[in-house]
What we know:
The protein is of the alpha/beta class. The chain folds into 2 domains: 3-152, Rossmann fold; 183-411, Alpha-Beta Barrel (TIM Barrel), CATH 3.20.20. The chain has 20 helices and 15 strands. Helix 1 packs across helix 6 and helix 9 runs parallel beside helix 10 (246-258). The model has no long low-confidence stretch (mean pLDDT 93). Residues 9, 12-14, 16, 18-20, 23-24, 62-64, 66-70, 91, 93-96, 114, 117-119, 122, 189, 201-203, 238-240, 369, 402, 469-470 line the site of cobalamin. Cobalamin binds at residues 9, 12-14, 16, 18-20, 23-24, 62-64, 66-70, 91, 93-96, 114, 117-119, 122, 189, 201-203, 238-240, 369, 402, 469-470.
Amino acid sequence: MKKTVVLYNPYAVFYTMPLALIAIGSYLDLEKYNVIIIDARIEKNPFEKIEEALSNNGICFATTVLTGSPIKDAQEVSKKVKIKFPNIPVVWGGWHPSLFPEQTLNEPSIDVVVKGQGEIAFKELLERFELNLSLEGLAGVCYKNSENEIVCNQERSMVDINQFPAFNYDLINVPAYMKLSGRKQLDYISSQGCRFRCSFCADPFMYKRGWYGFSAERMGDEIEALWKKYKFEHVHFQDETFFTNSKRVKAIAEEFIKRKLPISWFGTMRADQGVRFDEEVWEICKKSGLEKVMIGMEAGSQEMLDWIQKDIKLEHVFDSAKKCIKYDIGINFSIIIGFPGESEESINSTLSMVNELRKMSNKFHMGIFYYKPYPGNKIADELISNGYIFAKTLEEWSDFDYVGTKVSDWISEEKINEIENFKFYQQLAYNRRKIPVLKFVAKWRIENKKYAFPIEKKLKEWIFPSPAMA
Ligand code: B12
Ligand code: SF4
């Protein structure tokens, strides 16, 4: 009789497909296991589904966890599972437990943490559970031994993702995600890791600056087969750095064209990559449906970019922006404000660069976030040596919110108000479908930094209160 493995995605605010769970689920033998993905964003009563699934010869409950509010949900559900099914192991994987395995295992209901890339480690873990074997020596996991001590085994090296089978989207209800996200969009991840070293980012810690990408041919085959099945109109590549390898990008675009796929697509690009790419690559990307890219601009002063080891120049950002205008491609810029010790001058440079870019195209959008320190990188190490105290428990980390109430430790309340006003008015000033007079006033406010009596803002917040992000 098949054993049941439940893979759980905690509650979150957006409806991207649960690719991590699809990845580890697709690597399991379905002749051997019932793999059931339960997503709190989709199910009305997820715990009822979990109970039902685990009652059918359950062998493991496993959940993917990002830092912030997903911890709260994952922790509550793990506790309930442990009470109802004390003999079924509870496994946590993904970004948060990979960064804090010991802290995570201090929660009594959690038995095992899988660190980093999960496919092989999870499969081997299930094999040990089935045979009731100890987890001693199983690379890439931390666990509690029979004395209830936390043991961390050796790290597991990242392997080339081309070794893994195609994502099995049958494990999820694809149309339900499309409906909730409001677009016939397929989420797909074509690479894992990142070769760069930005000193605020968790990726270098998680994947040790390794990067592997699917071959273009494989992607052509998979995306064509998925398109025939689901007839989506857009593919959203959730990669950290989709445009890492120009030859691969070109070959992928050629695959889409060769197969006449009527799709648009989105990918993450570094500003320096945009500059390095030949016109031919830009052209073919556009022709194959490239609609928008995401560029991590981060800061608008070269000094700050150097300090965070972004390894780009300010000119790269403008030059990539010009290329996108030339090929009529949109950009979502990602900006971080308030790095430790960042001067007001540096923040102002960032805001004025945001404004300059925003003026260049109404297809440019700016996501402005406040820096939140996160262990596992150079900035955090320096903060720790200067006495900064990080959250110490899962409960404390679950209150951690990148856009929460205490938005920054390094910016004054007054400056935060100014930035929030700037964020609001630049949206109003440059978004396409807005009333001309409001746009005019918003532009005037930004140029003159005049944010007194923000009635437009109050009115908007009253009519459309914004949801919490995490
Ligand atoms: C999609 C996505 C989201 C979705 C989450 C969807 C969901 N499933 O709930 C949404 C849009 C909600 C989101 C939100 C945010 N995200 Co996000 N997101 C991503 C993104 C782009 C893709 C994730 C993904 O599907 N990857 C594909 C899978 C295959 O890779 P993976 O997750 O690494 O999974 C592998 C391993 O981690 C492991 N694994 C993962 N889960 C599990 C579970 C088990 C049981 C096992 C055994 C193994 C395992 O095995 C997998 C296969 O090898 C990543 C970047 C990236 N490319 O990974 C950022 C990323 C995860 N997000 C990040 C951030 C910062 C955020 C935000 C804070 C952004 C913001 N400023 O608001 C918010 C808030 C998060 C929150 N607290 O709710 C950070 C990391 C944060 C962290 N430490 O948790 C990342 C890494 C981006 C970055 N480089 O900064 N995000
Ligand atoms: S911020 Fe982007 S480019 Fe920099 S290390 Fe992280 S994933 Fe790589």
